[in-house]
Amino acid sequence: MKNIFYISVIGLGLLMGSCADFLDRQPLSDLSVATYWKSEQDLKTWNAAMYDGLQSTLRTNWFDWGEVRAGGYAARGTGYDINLLGNSLTSSSGSTSWSNLYNTIYRANAAIKNIPLSGLGSTVTNPYIGQAYTMRALMYFYAIRVWGDVPMITEPMEDVATQQIYYSRSSISDIKNLMLSDIEKALTAFGPSSDLTTASKFYLNRGAALALKMDILMWFKDYDNALVVGNDLLTNYKYALAPHSNYIGQFLDPTTSNEMIFNLSWSYEEDGNGFGYAQRIASGSNTIMYHPSEAIFRTLVERKKEDIRTIAIMDTLWLSTFINPTEMTTETYASAYAGTYGNAAGFQIKCPKFVPYLATANSGKGGYAYANNGEDNTKMPIYRLADILLLKAEALTLKTTPDLAGAIKIVNDIRTRAGYTKLANIVDYPTSDTILNLILDERRIELWAEGKIWFDLVRNDKVKEYLDPIYKAADPLSAGFVIGVEKPSPDFVGGYGRMLWPLNQDVFKKNPEMKGKQNQPYDE
Fold first, then answer.
1. Is-contact 303 312, C-beta < 8 A?
2. Is the peptide bond before 381 cis (omega within 30 degrees of 0)?
């Protein structure tokens, strides 16, 4: 994720503030076909509220669920969560709640049930139906990756406060079938399209549905079918990698980028408060909670002279005005942390003058003016083409008959686009496992702060391998990342133990069906 949180958001946000209030006041039982769902404006309003739910779900969870646990960050300031960094979660941790996620599911359920009954005709209704099915699949995909078995609810509920009370946990297998079925229904509703690059990046569309389907198939290690979907997306819809000369441009203005597939929009003026970037990694008003770990910093030092992602990552983390990239050494990390180069709270590094569209972004300082905690906007990528390409490389590596050369070529294409001239070769990566690690390392750099890396490690059973050296470097007597508890279901991906998040304590207070069904080793 690169320098995107202070750019203004268009159109979509204008509906969301008033719509969220409307839905909070209006019980779903009152929103029948007879009283609502009568015009396309009704559909637009409900659709905006569904995206409002997505915003609320991912505002800080994109980082807590998908980034900070994976070993790429270190504590900064006073607001960090040591339990997240150390994977010692508890059932009272803030991001354990699934209430926003299920509120989004309920809104999707209501749309799926009521829009076909509106009588507005398929030309009007199909785009909204497609978005509702895709959104429900996306929410359940987050749910099973975070908590494992979760309640599977497909009907709109009468009372938002008690809507989980009669539901217990469903199997991941059943939810997998629902997600893939929802995507097929979404694809039917969206219909064919030869050029998805012209579609809005802030609404789910056919490209987003295909990207999600590939992601789901990769999660369940169905590599052959994932390749079929990925190749369709890569060859038939005119997506293309952003050029090196405008790498940052895809984040600043995704609407003009052929690489972006689907982005989450947030406007603090319309949506209230700011997005989670400023709180977590890039604040103009407070000490940031997290900055790159020393291991990541050393990786960037090695790439500093040519890889544009070095600048993008460092600048995202409020590393501006104190250190020039040419000064980056292994000693710089400790010096910056200690405040040698200025305010230690910033831990900053300049944007270089040789990237003019970056260098002029902050009144000539060479860096960026970061938004205050409550004032950051964002256009966060959920799916973009580089993500899909690297998933394809992973599938080529792990399928029954591997194509290791094809996987390495994709990694090299991603590196070349970024300006990094050190290319991988089969001599240095002779096995599927070494190439898989190469891909995961490249995904960490390319998709920095996009909520991906923790799920990458879990999907490939790599959590312990990657985290053990970190824990043991901090404490030679550490046992590393301990995995030793029985899986919640036979089809759960990855190890168990503290791999999954605990269910929030409120679940057990509100829903007697969930008693005794906490993820282990957590307490209810």
1. no
2. no
Residue 181 near residue 213, CB atoms below 8 Å: no
Distances (CA, A) of 197 to 173, 200, 207, 208, 233: 33, 8, 9, 11, 11
101-137 per-position pLDDT tens digit: 999 999 999 999 999 999 999 999 999 999 999 999 9
| Inter-residue contact 296 to 72 (CB < 8 Å) | yes
Torsion angle defined by CA atoms of residues 110, 116, 120 and 125, in that order, rounded to the nearest 10 degrees: 80
At residue 357, does pLDDT exceed 50? Answer: no
Query: Cβ neighbours of residue 303 under 8 Å, at least 6 residues apart?
Result: 309, 310, 420, 422, 445
Q: Which long-range contacts (CB under 8 A, 24 or more apart) does 223-231 make?
A: 223/395, 223/398, 223/399, 223/400, 224/395, 224/399, 224/400, 226/391, 226/392, 226/395, 227/392, 227/395, 227/396, 227/399, 230/388, 230/391, 230/392, 230/395, 231/392
What is the Cα–Cα distance from 213 to 438, expressed in whole angstroms?
24
Residue 310's pLDDT is what?
75
Q: What is the DSSP string of 200-217?
A: -TTS--HHHHHHHHHHHH
State the residue for tokens 């509100």.
510
Backbone angles phi, psi at 261, to 5 degrees: -110, -50
- Nearest-CA neighbor of 134 among 71, 178, 86, 91? 178
Average pLDDT of 141-168?
79
CA 263 to chain centre: 10
Tens digits of residue pLDDT in 283-339: 667 777 887 787 887 787 777 667 888 766 655 433 334 455 556 666 667 766 665
Length of the chain counted residue by residue: 524
Q: Which of 179-183, 260-264, 434-438 has the lowest mean pLDDT?
A: 260-264
Residues 389-413: what's their mean pLDDT?
A: 98
Phi, psi of 170 (to 5 degrees): -100, 160
Q: Render 9-49 in DSSP notation, one character per residue.
A: --THHHHHHHHHHHHHHS-GGG--TTTS--SHHHHHHHHHH
313 close to 448: Cβ distance less than 8 angstroms: yes
Residue 509, amino acid: K
